[in-house]
Each structure stands twice: as structure tokens, then as C-alpha cells.
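Whiteboard transcription, Tuesday session. T.W. wrote the C-alpha cells on the left side:
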């Protein structure tokens, strides 16, 4: 099968064997896969990953012990846990001590004609959600996780820092669920993607400090947290969503002095993401390119600075 393989230095389209599933796993023929900022960071060295990239996908189950999955369109949760360690037994399976992560850590990803995943990771996509929307389920679930991690009151003044892919998905979720939300970013033309947003502010022009009850940082770079610390109120909450390659120096004294609560937020609930798509949450307006696997290098080049770019198998 064809697959996009990263060897630690370059990304290449190669021929590799179709993965052999084990008991409790399903084999999936990939239909669509999204290029994520995490994929871009892996090419810079993030997680030291070597293998097939990709974790945002929709596909069709072609082989499985579970007959009710055969022929079904599915999306898949990216964390593969052992089920045996203390954290798994405590219900923290996405923090498994032996965690493997689709296309990110010790498990080949979805930028291939086929992939395998544990049956328990799979969610069937209903007929009212097409493939181009379904490919957003994984990042949309990560956006929804913000609502699981922090209680947002109707009176709260909320700001999303970052108007990239994840920042806009978070903003879409918040506005769809009825929360008044401000966006701090660099691309005012992207306001049309979230027309219900209360205010769209340019980062370079915004100088006010300590005005937001809750700040959700989704910039994908090291400067985002500094901005979040500056604009959150004393005893406010910062939700961190960014992951990226590299180290940086940060003064955390403001967190202590102003009694700021910092919450890390990662993967989220697939069932709710699927439900919001079925209820009409629009995501396809974020797609800025669809490419074949053969044109993957161009797709990755085009993905820099754009919203969602999708590979079609």
C-alpha cells in the first residue's frame, strides 16, 4: 500500500505492507485524512516520531472480528492504551503509562491506504455526516474538551488566543454552544469562519491587560502562554492547548503572584463531536485544499499558514 513515511529527516511516499491486525483490532481503508499542526511539528522533531504520519481520518472498516463494524465508516480515537497499568485501571486510559498514539508515538498513522486500530477506539459515522466533515471529528473533540476541563459561566469574559485550525474550532464550539467569545489572532479575514464571534482582535494591536476570566491558548507557539498570562484576570483560568517542538524559557512568577489557574487540555469526547456535527456545526468552511497522496509534499507545503488541508486516498 502507499503511505507517507517520515524517517526523521524527510517525508516520502513509499510502498509498505498492509498492516496486519491482531485480535481486538480492525483494519480500515482510509478515505480522507487531515494535515494537523502536530504533523507539521513532527517534521521538526516533535516526539522523535519515525513512521507513517496522520491521526485525523475517516475510513471504512474492511476487516474486523466485530461483524457490526464491517463496511461501516468510522473515525478513531488516537490513544492506544495497555488497559493494564494503574492509570488505565483508574480510568485514565489516555494517560496510560505505556501509551501509543496514532501517527505520533509508536503506532503508524492514517496517511496510508490502510491503518489498524483497536475496536474500542472506533466510532461509527452516521449517514448525515459526510467524509469531509467527519475528518474533523478528532480535532473537534479536542476543542470540545475545553468545556470538560473548565466550567464557563454565561457571565465569564472568554478569549481564545490563536486563530489557527484548533483556535477556530474551539471558537466554533463555544459560539455554537452559546458562549460569548473573543478571538485574538493575526488573520482578521478568518472572522467569517466564526460569524457569531463577539469580537475579533489583532494580536499586534491589543494592549489591554488582565481583562479575561478565561483564556484558551491555542497559538501553537511559545509566545501564546506569555500572552495568555498577560490578559487573564487575577485568579482567572488559562487553558493550554498548544504542543510544539522545542524548549523555551518562561517566567511563571505571574501565575503565582496573580493566582492564575493553569489547565492542560488534550484529546476530547468523540461522541459529542459527532453529535455537534449532526446538529449542524459547520467545519467544511475551514478546508483550504484537498490533495491526493501523490501530491502530499505539495499539500504539506501548502498547509503552512493555511487552515485545513486534506489528503484524499
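and on the right, the sequence the group agreed on:
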Amino acid at each position: 500500500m502507499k503511505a507517507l513515511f517520515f524517517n526523521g529527516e524527510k517525508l516520502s511516499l513509499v510502498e509498505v505492507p498492509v498492516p496486519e491486525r491482531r485480535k481486538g483490532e480492525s483494519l480500515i481503508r482510509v478515505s480522507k485524512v487531515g494535515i494537523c499542526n502536530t504533523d507539521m511539528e513532527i517534521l521538526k522533531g516533535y516526539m522523535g516520531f519515525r513512521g507513517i504520519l496522520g491521526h485525523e481520518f475517516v475510513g471504512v472498516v474492511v476487516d474486523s472480528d466485530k461483524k457490526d463494524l464491517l463496511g461501516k465508516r468510522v473515525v478513531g480515537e488516537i490513544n492506544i492504551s495497555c488497559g493494564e497499568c494503574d492509570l488505565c485501571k483508574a480510568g485514565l486510559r489516555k494517560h496510560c503509562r505505556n501509551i501509543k498514539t496514532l501517527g505520533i508515538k509508536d503506532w503508524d498513522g492514517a496517511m496510508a491506504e490502510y491503518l489498524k486500530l483497536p475496536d474500542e477506539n472506533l466510532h461509527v459515522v452516521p449517514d448525515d455526516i459526510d467524509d469531509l466533515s467527519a475528518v474533523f471529528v478528532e480535532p473537534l473533540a479536542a476543542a470540545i474538551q475545553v468545556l470538560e476541563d473548565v466550567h464557563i459561566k454565561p457571565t465569564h469574559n472568554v478569549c481564545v488566543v490563536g486563530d489557527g485550525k484548533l483556535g477556530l474550532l474551539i471558537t466554533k464550539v463555544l459560539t455554537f454552544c452559546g458562549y460569548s467569545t473573543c478571538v485574538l489572532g493575526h488573520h482578521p479575514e478568518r472572522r467569517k469562519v466564526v460569524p457569531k464571534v463577539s469580537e475579533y482582535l489583532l494580536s499586534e494591536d491589543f494592549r489591554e491587560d488582565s481583562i479575561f476570566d478565561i483564556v484558551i491558548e491555542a497559538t501553537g507557539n511559545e509566545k501564546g502562554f506569555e500572552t495568555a498570562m498577560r490578559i487573564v484576570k487575577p485568579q482567572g483560568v488559562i487553558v493550554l492547548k498548544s504542543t510544539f517542538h522545542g524548549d523555551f524559557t518562561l517566567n511563571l512568577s505571574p501565575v503565582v503572584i496573580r493566582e492564575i489557574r493553569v489547565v492542560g487540555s488534550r484529546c476530547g469526547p468523540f461522541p459529542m463531536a459527532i453529535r455537534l456535527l449532526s446538529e449542524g456545526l459547520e467545519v467544511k468552511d475551514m478546508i483550504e485544499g484537498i490533495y491526493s497522496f501523490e501530491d502530499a509534499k505539495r499539500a504539506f507545503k501548502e498547509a503552512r499558514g493555511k487552515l485545513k488541508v486534506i489528503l484524499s486516498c
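Someone added at the bottom: The radius of gyration is 19 Å.
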